Amino acid sequence: GQQLNQSPQSMFIQEGEDVSMNCTSSSIFNTWLWYKQDPGEGPVLLIALYKAGELTSNGRLTAQFGITRKDSFLNISASIPSDVGIYFCAGQSNFGNEKLTFGTGTRLTIIP
Amino acid sequence: DGGITQSPKYLFRKEGQNVTLSCEQNLNHDAMYWYRQDPGQGLRLIYYSQIVNDFQKGDIAEGYSVSREKKESFPLTVTSAQKNPTAFYLCATSKGLVWRTDTQYFGPGTRLTVL
Fold first, then answer.
1. Average pLDDT over chain A, rounded to an integer
2. A109 in contact with B at a CB cutoff of 8 Å?
3. DSSP 3-state helix, strand, coil percentages of chain B (rounded to 5)?
């Protein structure tokens, strides 16, 4: 199955820094989702995007649905230790008719 | 307490044995999914079900089987035919086709280790 290109694969940052990651696809998506996964746990939904150009925030997290419908971005401002984990993007082509396609994840590590 | 329950959290089995992983939800969601996650990789879809008594193969269904006899339950059986069953298994649900959204919510996962 298709997988999204998610970058970077890993990030090492200091506490307080801002973080940016993105996902790109060769296909157009109608839905973009961003999840965070802690070690040994299931992914937790952070932000859902349903409209091209949409910019949505959830606390210190902001995600955008790219105008081309082929990409999405996630930003984390002023990172804190609990932001550590793996962030996954996921896209869907048609509402309810197509399966979600997941990115390969961005592993975020915060250096003390 | 609403949510998705997967049990057990950790499971150990001998090679050649079938094993069934449980997934229960009380979110009243129509659709349920099983994913497999290997270290350093994304999620790969094993099986999914949009409605009771119906299910479809995902991208890596070989060596797995499922049933959907009740809306709340979607058990996954890892059979002896699965060549490399050791992995982290995740169950997910979504409201389904009627709601025109496939935003999925995940359970806590089951880590299966085959010895």
1. 91
2. no
3. 5, 50, 45
From A48, which residue of chain B is nearest by alpha-carbon distance? Answer: B103
Pair of tokens at residue A33: 């989702």
Q: What Cα–Cα distance (Å) separates residue A96 from each residue in B11, B48, B79, B98?
A: 32, 12, 29, 8
Tokens standing for residue B38: 């290997």
Burial level of B15, CB count in 10 A (0-12/13-18/19+)?
exposed
pLDDT tens for each residue of B28-64: 999 999 999 998 778 999 999 989 999 999 999 999 9
pLDDT above 70 for B85: yes
> Are B42 and A96 within 8 A, CB to CB?
no
pLDDT at B68 > cutoff 80: yes
CA distance B97 to chain A (A): 5
Beta strands in chain B (DSSP E): 4-7, 10-13, 19-25, 31-37, 43-51, 54-57, 64-66, 76-78, 87-94, 105-106, 110-114
